[in-house]
Amino acid sequence: MLICDLVAQLPGSQTVLPINVITALTSALAIGYKAGKGKSKVIAGPLNLELHAGQLVCLLGPNGCGKSTLLRTISGLQQPLKGEIIVEGGALNKLKPAQVAKKISLVLTDNVRAGNLDVYSLISLGRYPYSGWLGILTEHDKQIIEQAIKATDTEAFIGRKMDSLSDGECQKVMLARAMAQDTPLIILDEPTAHLDLPSRIQLMRLLHQLAKETNKAILLSTHELDLALQVADQIWLMSSGGQLDAGLPEELVLNGAFQHAFEKDGIVFDAASGTFNIHYAGKRGIKVTGEGVAAFWTKKALVRNGFSIASAATHPLNVSISGEGADTLWTVQR
Ligand SMILES: Nc1ncnc2c1ncn2[C@@H]1O[C@H](COP(=O)(O)OP(=O)(O)OP(=O)(O)O)[C@@H](O)[C@H]1O
């Protein structure tokens, strides 16, 4: 049984959305760049991927593996080398730019500084595929803008100039613009770059919630591995060689794909805690007896100081931990 089947069986599980509705898919897609003289540099492919309504998909992978290239290709900014992208049943390359703008909205990291524009005007730009370049907003457009503002919790910024906002506030406004565009698929390239930790957590939670509430498919690239593991419905894991594994976060951890994609000297992925750790080559073994928070942090301190944690029941060096909080007691047996 898969973990998703297990979760779906449980009473009170959130799997009420029709997760089998495919918003977009790629068919034998090869991504990369033309290198002149009829040659091309293939970054990855063939890729057969699916994006489902109501799901948040996080695209992860080391620097330079091809995340932005994939997002640009799926959003129609860049031609595929081979294969095709289907959105709501139709081939993307058959659509005119104005039609694409009604299917896919894109939020890039670098476009968040929109100078002297006020926040409401920027969010209204999301309606241009419907209102035309004159930008005359109908009552219906205004309603959708209001909904986007509410959903992204950006009411407080209306009336402010874009260049007066913090990076986190800017990202929320850019997301509101994408919501106002009201497309079935929203793509975001590294939306958490430049944000502090609380803003990163807030934005990722908001994206997860928006996918569920609006039934849109949301695809984003990120280097926030821990956060992605917590909020993503699906993870697309790219490796430097162009391999892409798609699956539930837990499945990719359990089958070792996660560890493999980020395998680097001195960095180890701890499947037990879902975090990346610096690997210290501990020479002297030590056994730690005890459970809970104190044991967890004691092991970290020992590893950082050159010990390796031994599992053998009888080990010459043993630390046992008892009690908790201010009453924690450490006893060393040699
Ligand atoms: N215009 C281009 N022409 C040729 N190669 C390119 C071009 N743009 C990017 N590349 C190369 O394609 C590969 C993938 O780049 P891409 O920007 O998609 O990676 P990424 O995973 O998004 O990286 P990062 O995490 O650092 O943002 C890199 O080797 C990059 O040098």
UniProtKB/TrEMBL annotation:
A single MF term (Gene Ontology):
ATP binding
The taxonomy runs: Eukaryota, Fungi, Dikarya, Ascomycota, Pezizomycotina
SMART domains linked to this entry: AAA
Q: Which PANTHER family match?
A: IRON(3+)-HYDROXAMATE IMPORT ATP-BINDING PROTEIN FHUC
Topology in the lipid bilayer: Peripheral membrane protein
Q: Which residues form the ABC transporter domain?
A: 16-265
Subcellular compartments: Cell membrane
Q: Biological process (GO) annotations?
A: monoatomic ion transport
Keyword list (alphabetical) reads:
ATP-binding, Cell membrane, Ion transport, Iron, Membrane, Nucleotide-binding, Transport
Quote a single Gene Ontology cellular component term. Answer: plasma membrane
Q: What is this protein called?
A: ABC transporter domain-containing protein
Q: What is its main location?
A: membrane
Signal peptide boundaries: none
Q: Record the organism.
A: Tuber aestivum
| Record-linked InterPro entries | AAA+_ATPase, ABC_transporter-like_ATP-bd, P-loop_NTPase, Siderophore_ABC-ATPase
